[in-house]
Amino acid sequence: MPGLGPKVSLAAQVGFLGLCLTLVTAYRGTPVFSTFSITFVAIVLEAMPFVLLGVLIGGAIEVFIPRDRMAALLPASPLLSVAIAGGLGLLFPVCECAIVPVVRRLLAKGFPIGAAVAFLLGGPIVNPIVGASTLIAYGGAWSIATDRLLTGYLVAVTIGLLVGVIFKNRQATASEALDGSCSLCGDHGPDFPSPISRTASVIRHAMDEFIDVGRFLVIGAFIAAGLQALISRQDLIDLTAAPMTSTLMMMTLALVLNLCSEADAFVAASFRSSGIPLTAQMAFMVLGPMLDIKLLFMYLTLFRKRFILVLSGLILSVVSAVMAAKGIAQGW
Amino acid sequence: MVDRRRWRKRPLSDLTTAAVCILWLASIRWLIIGERYRTFLQPGFRYLLYAAAGVFVLFLLVAVLGNSGRERLRTRWTITVRGLVLLTPLLFMVAAEGTWLSSHALGMKQVRESGDPLSFLAGATRDRPAPNAEGELTIMDLVQHQDQLAGTRVMVRGGIFKDDRYPEDLRVLFRFAMLCCAADALPVGILVRPQEGAPAMVNDDWVRIEGILKKIPVNGAPHPVIEAARIEVLPPPPPGDRYLPLM
């Protein structure tokens, strides 16, 4: 795994394989195992088509967009480029699993880190599919659907601007992701004589990306399913005592449940009858598509560990601050 | 004829990718047969699985027919282990065969204070729900239209759970409502009071219940309860019958 060193990374993955075999041989047939295995496989199966779509888009970016053209795609002003990137999901509605390999390829082509992060965080929320699912889950409440998209956009752009100021691409991006000169194209960029060989190259890039990114999806989904099978939602709810606590609790739930941004509004809406304030439900819907356990593992394919720590801290801080401001404005 | 010399010279990463693709393709076929995928996903995801299979076929073709001629990963171990990690979901997929989200999952997903977690959908449809061809309603129908249906005879199917929070003579009849996948499935349940002489039921028995829906006080608050006149213990349901569609 990036950032762990090759031997430690290999040992961790071998350990993971050993754990899987132990679980299947020792616990198969128990209720906990059923809940775990169904949840684990469901998360992987749900995400897999979108990850495959993402790696194909990433492969196309690698082959068809030369590095020098990438810079020309966005405005020179960092503020404007981050503002545009944060709303790109409206044009390219992708979920959080599909967006990771796309952003990986964009970073390798020199996409500015601030804009890349704004797209990474905003894309899975600021898109029409998520807007529609939120609208349905909340019984046609346009105000809640709009609030979710606007809040997601605000948080994504704020964090994009902050990381754009603090970090340069090379400081943030994992060395594997930064390596634009892939082994297929050599050091001189792609040079494919025919459309067939170009297409084959897109698929080959996608294939390599899948092998690399896919394992993080698997390991992240494994941990997420373990938490869902071992920790009850009630135990998390029991931590609730005050509005701010409920916001933190719902944020914790978003980190643990690892739901797709197109489905999470229904789970958030199910907490209305528990007396969880709307601000806390919004925190769940804004944080989940930006940060959860599965995504943390997938971010390892994009960023350096130190950057992931800073990014996670920024996401948690900005979402908490925005929700606290909303709560105060609504009189809690 | 396969050119064996050419095949032996292929990078191990190509061979690993080909093996991963073949096994994933076989698994997708296995999932589609008998609608096994519905243990994990809602019916509409069938088409996304087809799309995923299409991409795996493309990967397989390029891995088998194309040849980059260069190894792209560091060591044989790295390549093999990465491939194996990608195959672990298949192991659990097979291990989960014949199981479903049971009362254990109900305990993990339900929230005590909320009563019915799907009450947020109440009022989404005002029309009285229509029974299916067998005369059955769903638990979601009963919960969402409890006031309209109170006092009427209903027939409904689900899993049984003895919840210690309720009086000894009551059982919870439950299902899971799914939007995308089992990870986002929400539990929905209704209380049942079996008549004397009803067949013995244990947790996770799959039953069909017929009786009168009433709203009666339970633990100090009014709850919809089915006064069960007839209880039939059924064989475990096929994957397609396990979940209710949330949308």
Task: Write a concise keyword list for the protein shown above.
heterodimer, A: 332 residues, mainly alpha, 17 helices, 0% strand, globular, B: 247 residues, alpha/beta, five-stranded mixed beta barrel, 23% strand, elongated
Indicate the topology.
The complex is a heterodimer of chains A (332) and B (247).
Chain A: H1 6-27, H2 31-64, H3 67-73, H4 78-86, H5 96-108, H6 113-122, H7 128-137, H8 142-166, H9 169-172, H10 175-178, H11 195-230, H12 233-237, H13 243-257, H14 264-269, H15 278-287, H16 293-299, H17 305-329
Helix pairs in contact in A: 2-5, 2-11, 4-6, 4-8, 5-6, 6-8, 7-8, 8-15, 8-17, 11-16, 13-15, 13-17, 15-17
Chain B: H1 4-8, H2 12-32, H3 45-65, H4 76-95, H5 103-109, H6 139-144, H7 146-149, E1 153-161, E2 171-178, E3 186-194, E4 206-218, E5 221-234, H8 239-242, E6 243-245
Parallel strand pairs in B: 2-6, 3-5
Antiparallel strand pairs in B: 1-2, 1-4, 2-3, 4-5
Structural class, from helix and strand content of chain A? mainly alpha
How many helices of chain A in DSSP terms? 17
Unreliable spans of chain A are none
**Based on helices, strands and strand pairing, what is the structural class of chain B?**
alpha/beta
* Mean pLDDT across all amino acids of chain A: 85
Please give the number of β-strands of chain B.
Answer: 6
Q: Order of strands in the sheet with the most strands of chain B?
A: 1-2-3-5-4
Please tell me the overall pLDDT of chain B.
Answer: 84
Shape of chain B: elongated
The largest β sheet of chain B comes out as:
5 strands, mixed, barrel
What portion of residues of chain B belong to β-strands? 15-25%
The poorly predicted ranges of chain B are none
- Per DSSP E runs of 2 or more residues, the count of β-strands of chain A stands at 0
| Percentage of β-strand residues of chain A | under 5%
Helix content estimate of chain B: 25-40%
Gyration radius of chain A, to the nearest Å?
20 Å
Q: What fraction, in percent, of the residue positions of chain A are helical?
A: over 70%
Radius of gyration of chain B: 24 Å
The greatest inter-chain interface is formed by:
A-B, 78 and 75 residues
Q: Span between N and C termini of chain A?
A: 43 Å
